[in-house]
Specification:
With 381 residues, this protein is of the alpha/beta class. The protein folds into 2 domains: 114 residues, Aspartate Aminotransferase, domain 1; 222 residues, 3-Layer(aba) Sandwich (Aspartate Aminotransferase, domain 2), CATH 3.40.640. 44% of the residues lie in helices and 15% in strands. Strand 3, helix 5 and strand 4 form a beta-alpha-beta unit. Bound molecules: pyridoxal-5'-phosphate. Pyridoxal-5'-phosphate binds next to helix 4.
Length: 381
């Protein structure tokens, strides 16, 4: 490529920098207030032992091909069967990542005559799938049940003949609040539609036995779920729960599933162990709940912030540059807290995203809240 051809990329990056939106890679440093390793399983000895045992039993690191060819290992199928039992789904399909699973789901299942109604704060991976979908789509106000209803009813009144698909996150990744799942399931059911619940930040953390917040809806065949494995489960991949017919349709039509090397069988073995752990070790969730309550008290008393009720706590500062400066100050103090800016969050809502995990203790939380209060004050809060 010539220098002039590359100059356009430099110009775009310079523009991002001017708006304090430039992204760069930073080393892993400081006390963890930014990972999604909620239950501290990413580095857990039980999973390490399960992986060692799997290697000794000859489970390979690489799958060697697509699931539809030689890449389909028995351990993928064992994981999917166990996950189906656990999450109360007729079938589960294991994907290499949550991003890929969402793209596969939204680009494959909603059909040309259908409507996808998604929360305005839905994750980028769902948006990417919607872009590739033939269905119509509309974004509606965050967690506003009436807006979901109205979007479907208007579409029907305008002659929409297919099925409506409602897309939400059970716990929103950048806000930490919950979707009104029971009401949305009702909206979907009463209009002959489906509800797709991305449980990325709820799996392992919320619901009975850590099975997620959609587990209360498990008997409903119009509810599809996505349980990512890179957050509370500490590994990688995603488990998509869906009716058998839709799973068979995905295997025949989902390009990300068909034309991609199957996930590592070793990773699948690790995820099987992680699912066991979230069932066997409820004390991890109890410890996380206690830390979350403690963080909530700290935020209320030191910063007058209302807690989100989940391990994800946004501290909205508005301006991009200010968010970056405050995050840098906290990083200098030894706390790994990141600034999240548009387009990941809406314009004018740049924030610090505090993520709470079992990788920290109460003393560290108290120290972080104090330093955060100082940083916000020094930077003109
Ligand atoms: C709500 C949500 N869905 C999907 C994903 C993507 O999952 P993965 O990290 O496994 O690709 C994420 C991760 O950022 C997420 O927060």
């Amino acid at each position: 490529m010539t220098v002039t051809a590359l100059a356009r990329y430099e110009a775009t990056l310079a523009g991002l920098e001017r708006k304090s939106r430039l992204r760069t890679l930073a080393p892993r440093q400081g006390i963890d207030f930014s990972s999604n390793d909620y239950l501290s399983l990413a580095n857990c000895s039980r999973i390490a032992k399960a992986l060692t045992a799997a290697i000794e039993r000859g489970i390979p690191a690489g799958s060697g091909g697509s699931r539809l060819l030689r890449g389909n290992h028995w351990v993928h199928e064992a994981l999917e069967a166990e996950a189906a039992m656990m999450f109360g789904a007729e079938r589960v399909l294991y994907f290499g990542s949550g991003f890929s699973a969402n793209v596969a789901l939204f680009s494959t299942l909603p059909q040309r005559d259908d409507l996808i109604v998604h929360d305005e704060l839905i994750h980028a991976s769902v948006r990417e799938g919607i872009l590739a979908s033939k269905a119509e789509s509309v974004a509606v106000a965050h967690n506003d049940i009436a807006s979901f209803e109205a979007a479907i009813d208007h579409w029907r009144a305008d002659g929409g003949i297919g099925s409506p698909w409602i897309a939400v996150e059970s716990i929103y990744s950048m806000d930490g609040d919950r979707a009104p799942l029971a009401a949305l399931a009702e909206v979907a059911a009463s209009r002959g539609g489906y509800l797709i619940v991305d449980e990325a930040h709820a799996t392992g953390v919320f619901g009975p036995g850590g099975r997620g917040l959609a587990s209360e809806l498990r008997s409903q065949s119009n509810v599809l779920t996505l349980h990512t494995c890179g957050k509370a489960l500490g590994l990688s991949g995603a488990l998509m729960g869906l009716p058998d017919v839709l799973a068979r349709y995905m295997v025949n039509r989902a390009r990300n599933f068909i034309y991609s090397t199957a996930p590592s069988p070793l990773m699948a073995a690790g995820v099987r162990e992680a699912l066991q752990i979230i069932g066997d070790e409820p004390e991890r969730r109890e410890r996380l709940d206690a830390l979350r309550d403690f963080l909530g008290d700290q935020l209320r008393s030191k910063l007058s912030i209302t807690p989100s009720g989940s391990p994800i706590q946004p501290v909205i500062v508005g301006d991009n540059a200010r968010a970056v400066r405050i995050a840098a100050r906290l990083q200098n103090d030894g706390f790994d807290i990141r600034a999240i800016r548009p387009p990941t969050v809406p314009d004018g809502t740049a924030r610090l995203r505090i993520s709470l995990t079992l990788n920290v203790n109460k003393a560290q939380i108290a120290a972080m809240a104090s330093r955060l209060a100082v940083a916000l004050e020094k930077d003109g809060a």
